[in-house]
């Protein structure tokens, strides 16, 4: 990424975009994992918010990470405390090392399974290497469509 260039991160799922200040997970709300947003999902199809290489697929299917060729590391975490579901309701569609394009399907998630088990389906998208950039600006308080920009990053 050339210095001063803006990089757009699109939504991983259509839904209402909220500030990390308004999510119920203290680790994400504190930004310990990086700056980003929460999305209250309208569908269960989770897509890549950036193009790059899948670097993490959690065994339970609830979290994914993508590293871009520009040095951006993005975490997609589906739901709050959903690791406790041990994969129930999660169907990963990618493998570690797979190259994806923004918009490619990462997972199909059964939102009803998450909700009926008592978990919050809010999907978190954060730049885990926020400190490597001059600006990581989350955009929130709107309803994201499939290709809506939710985070702007400046090198």
Secondary-structure topology with pairs:
Layout: E1 6-10, E2 15-19, H1 26-29, E3 35-41, E4 45-47, E5 52-57, E6 63-67, E7 73-80, E8 90-92, E9 99-100, E10 105-109, H2 111-116, E11 120-127, E12 135-138, E13 142-144, E14 149-154
Antiparallel strand pairs: 1-14, 2-3, 2-13, 3-11, 4-10, 5-6, 5-9, 6-7, 7-11, 8-10, 12-14
Outline the structure in words:
With 155 residues, the chain is mostly beta strands. The chain has one domain: Glucose Permease (Domain IIA) (Distorted Sandwich). The protein has two helices and 14 strands, in the order ββαββββββββαββββ. Strands 9-5-6-7-11-3-2-13 form an eight-stranded antiparallel sheet. It has a three-stranded antiparallel sheet with strand order 1-14-12, with no helix packed on it. A three-stranded antiparallel sheet has the order 4-10-8. Strand 5 and strand 6 (63-67) form a beta hairpin.
């Amino acid at each position: 990424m050339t210095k001063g260039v803006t990089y757009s991160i699109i939504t991983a799922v259509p839904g209402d975009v909220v500030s990390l200040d308004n999510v119920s997970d203290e680790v994400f709300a504190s930004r310990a994992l990086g700056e980003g947003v929460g999305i209250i999902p309208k569908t269960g199809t989770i897509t890549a918010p950036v193009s790059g290489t899948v670097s993490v697929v959690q065994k339970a299917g609830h979290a994914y990470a993508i590293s871009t060729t520009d040095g951006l590391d993005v975490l997609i975490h589906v739901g709050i405390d959903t690791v406790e579901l041990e994969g129930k309701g999660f169907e990963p569609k990618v493998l570690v090392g797979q190259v994806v394009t923004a918009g490619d399907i990462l997972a199909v998630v059964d939102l009803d399974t998450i909700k009926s088990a008592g978990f919050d389906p809010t999907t978190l998208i954060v730049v885990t290497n926020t400190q490597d950039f001059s600006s990581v600006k989350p955009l929130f308080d709107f309803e994201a469509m499939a290709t809506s920009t939710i985070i702007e990053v400046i090198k």
